[in-house]
Amino acid sequence: MVSQKQLKGPDVFGRTFAADEKSLLAIASRLEARAKHRFFQKVVDEYVNALELKGHESVLDLGCGTGAIARMIASRDDCKERITAIDISPYLVETGKRLASEEGLSHKIDFLTGDAHSIIELQGQFDVLIMHTLVSHVVDPVTVLQEARRLLRPGGRLVIFDGDFDSLTYATDAPDGGAETDRLQAIAGHTQGRVMRLMPRLLSDQGFSLEWSRAYVAADIGRADFWSSTLPALRVLLPSSGVMSELEASEYVDKLESASSSNTFFASCNFYTMIARGTIWD
């Protein structure tokens, strides 16, 4: 059986089940900050609007992290049923419970701990399953898609939003323009950097029919905006992944923050949303 705990790479977001508290705090802070950014809010609004929820659908947020997306959806008028939110990290699940309570949404979200590769007890219970920045961190995307098909009711819909992290780049003043530090970031922060390029074929192979998609570029030019909340996280997560020392990470981030202050910053990554419906059922 495939398990996330079989992860061999240093992807810190893929290892939240075993990360130290300092790293988990940095991850939680980044997840919350980016969810409050207008880019992510637009993305979520667009795919939830595309679902045209009637209010009675059962929704699962798989790989929910701190539950930021589940809370965004739970606060909408077109989501009347309780949302189930699952993450492999007990720390992030407890953080999600606390934040939902603080926002008055604990009565609308059930938080559970579980591995996206195997959620046996809830199979066939959901009309909509959302994977928001999950598949780039999993050990085996195919197994996760197979599990999604089992978790959904016949004809249920799957929403996948994630980055094409092989396109992620932070320009630097290094002779290579940042190519090496981009490579190190890719190792440290993602397991499946090209998975969204493969997703239309993977969905078809697993019995899903692609119905809706959107493409986005999150680019900051001159000053850091969307990427600004990533920079303090990198000070912690790059060393914890083992790809840089604390000093190297600090110097790297110092230069990026200096570039933002001097209006010479550049960072960019492609993101994609896909909505697919299950068409073949065992």
So how many helices?
9
The gyration radius over C-alpha positions equals 18 Å
CATH 4th-level superfamily of the domain at 10-165 and 192-218 and 270-278: Vaccinia Virus protein VP39
**Which segments are poorly predicted (pLDDT under 50) over 5 or more consecutive residues?**
none
Give the C-level CATH assignment of the domain at 10-165 and 192-218 and 270-278: Alpha Beta
Strand content: 15-25%
Helical fraction equals: 25-40%
- CATH structural fold name of the domain at 10-165 and 192-218 and 270-278: Rossmann fold
Q: What's the structural blueprint in terms of helices and strands?
A:
Blueprint: H1 21-36, H2 38-51, E1 59-62, H3 68-74, E2 83-87, H4 90-102, E3 109-113, E4 126-132, H5 141-151, E5 152-170, H6 179-189, H7 195-205, E6 208-222, H8 230-241, H9 246-261, E7 265-278
Parallel strand pairs: 1-2, 1-4, 2-3, 4-5
Antiparallel strand pairs: 5-7, 6-7
Detailed description of the structure:
With 282 residues, the protein is α/β, with parallel strands linked by helices. It has a domain at 10-165 and 192-218 and 270-278: Rossmann fold (3-Layer(aba) Sandwich). It is 39% helix and 24% strand. The chain has a seven-stranded mixed beta sheet with strand order 3-2-1-4-5-7-6, sandwiched between helices. Helix 1 (21-36) runs antiparallel to helix 8 (230-241) and helix 8 runs antiparallel to helix 9 (246-261).
